[in-house]
Amino acid sequence: MKLKLFIATIFFCCTFVNAQMAQTFYKHDKYLSSDKLEGRFPGTKGNNEAAAYIQKYFKKYGLKEFGKSYYQPFMLFVKEGINKMKPDSVATQNVVGYIEGSDSNLKNEYIVIGAHYDHWGWGGQGSGSKKKEAFAIHNGADDNASGVSALLCILEEVSKMKVKPKRSIIFISFSGEEEGLLGSKYFINHLPVPKEAVKVMLNMDMVGRLNDKKELYMGGAGTFPNGVELMKKLQENSGLNPVIHAGDVGGSDHVSFYKESISAVGFHTGGHPQYHTPEDDFELINSEGGALVAKYIFNALTQIANYKEALVFIKQN
Predict the structure, then answer these.
(1) Dist. CA 156–CA 99, nearest whole Å
(2) Which of 136, 96, 111 is nearest to 303 (CA)?
């Protein structure tokens, strides 16, 4: 009887935690993909408001700043016709902070976890919209409000840990991804820590549409030692069916790290007809699925940050 009660209690606690995380995921995605932010295009008020929202939670959950700000500002050039803007250089920013590791030696090594927060604004000619003729807000609920929502859920869980992981963890939300991974390229070229200290990068881009098969896709799991084995092990009791590729690194911000010989894993829940259209809206987001994904990646992050084995880069074909 006591064993049954214990198992029931564990099940209730896990269910309650997942429900809480789903509510948190829901809250973040709903705000970030709201019409108020008008598609979060770099150089716009909506992009800046999204950055301020992310910064608020970085501060709330105890991230330290590099220097005196969570912002890493940079400039990018906007082509004519995008967002009905004239061609011009505009200011935007990555949002970045870190948690110091608990091990006196390993805290000098860093794991990066990130997700881009920008999207295509109102679309238009010159943009990456699949419906260039439709001048309408591209809310990007899946691409990539979902990745930022997962990032903030993971940060909240890390903040609750009484003993932090051994290695330090950098949390970052990139701008300028849609224009060619510009935020992550800027970050990798202006690192606040020595490049050789950055060991692994985990990236989330479109993780809000978990399908009925519960498939979480990932590329680059083989870019660090025993990565594929770790990801398979984490499947147990995750509620997910990870589709794990050792290589097939992909095309989002983690590629900027991989090209600099830094181990990098990209996570996503698959494509859909609403990709890069005004129809990528919040109503289609699977918040419960997003919570499962966030929990899985949280477990991967903490396992990697506590790795006993040396984290070395393994090039994939």
Answers:
(1) 12
(2) 111
**12-35 tens-digit pLDDT:** 445 555 789 999 999 999 999 999
CB 63 within 8 A of CB 99: yes
Domain 2-305: give its CATH architecture: 3-Layer(aba) Sandwich (3.40)
64 DSSP assignment? B
Print burial letters for 237-275: b (CB count within 10 Å at least 16), e (below 16). Answer: ebbbebebbbebbbebbbbbbbebebbbbbbbbbebebb
Which candidate, 264, 145, 129, 163, places its Cα nearest to that of 207?
Answer: 145
- Find the helix or strand (DSSP H, E) in which 250 lies: none
d(Cα 31, Cα 147) in Å, to the nearest integer? 13
Distance CA 317, CA 308 (A): 26
Query: Which residues face 66 on adjacent strands?
Result: 69
Domain ranges of the chain: 2-305
Per-residue pLDDT of 83-139, as tens digits, reads 888 889 999 999 999 999 999 999 999 999 999 999 999 998 889 999 988 889 999
| Type and span of the H or E element at 150 | helix 146-159
Cα first-last separation, the chain: 54
Angle at 154 between CA 9 and CA 37, to 5 degrees: 125
Integer angstrom CA distances of residue 251 from 136, 205, 218, 302: 26, 10, 12, 24
140 Cβ neighbours under 8 A, 6+ residues apart: 33, 39, 40, 119, 120, 280
The enclosing H or E element of 289 equals helix 287-305
DSSP-derived letter for residue 144 is I
At residue 61's C-alpha, the angle toward residues 106 and 114, to 5°, is: 65
**Residue 281: what are its φ and ψ, rounded to 5°?**
-110, 165
Cα–Cα distance between 170 and 113 in angstroms, integer? 6
